[in-house]
Amino acid sequence: MIYEHLGARPRIDDTAVIAPSAVVSGDVEIGPGCQVLHGAVITAEGGPITVGENVIVMENAIVRASAANPVHIGDHVLIGPGATVSGATVGDEVFLATGTRVFNGAQIGARAEVRINGVVHLRTILPEDAVVPIGWVAVGEPLRILPPERHEEIEAAQRELDFPGYVFGVDRDTPDVMVQLTERYGRSLARHAHDREV
């Protein structure tokens, strides 16, 4: 399904194939030879999304941009089933395996691999040809690629990256942080009430 959102319609190359159960919404440009499979969602939530040539977005993957963090996907990228890319830049020939998570402001260099259930955290820069092993977390500046059992180090880096502040503009130390976050984000998402299928 193709939707106009905030007055912007997706622009999809004639050679791209969008599955009937996929959703493409808003200011999205999809290049030639792309395949967007069943259940995938590509949604521009106030910021643009550009998808290069011969990109495969597999089943139930999510690609989401925000006003603060647009998305750019390079050429010959595979985004695996159930993967999520939010407000990030992904270089050419990148492999994002099943269940990977790439967060706002992240940059993934050409030919990098994020393996099954790997994470590239907020504002993290993963260089060209880098590999995030299965289930590991790439986080921080300077970059650290850590196994999940090193939670304390990951948490310390995450705190410095300030997810609530960077993504939602909410002070993480506010006692009602989730109240402020959900109300602010909910108002933004309510703009979908006026979307039109095209």
Automatic annotation (TrEMBL):
State a single Gene Ontology molecular function. Answer: transferase activity
Q: Name one Pfam family in it.
A: Hexapep
Query: Which InterPro entries does this chain map to?
Result: Hexapep, Transf_Hexapept/Carb_Anhydrase, Trimer_LpxA-like_sf
- Show the stretches that span the lipid bilayer: none
Q: Which UniProt keywords apply?
A: Transferase
Q: Would the keyword Zinc turn up in this protein's UniProt record?
A: no
What PANTHER family does this protein's entry cite?
DYNACTIN SUBUNIT P25 (PTHR13061), GAMMA CARBONIC ANHYDRASE-LIKE 1, MITOCHONDRIAL-RELATED (PTHR13061:SF29)
Question: What protein name is recorded for this chain?
Answer: Carbonic anhydrase/acetyltransferase-like protein (Isoleucine patch superfamily)
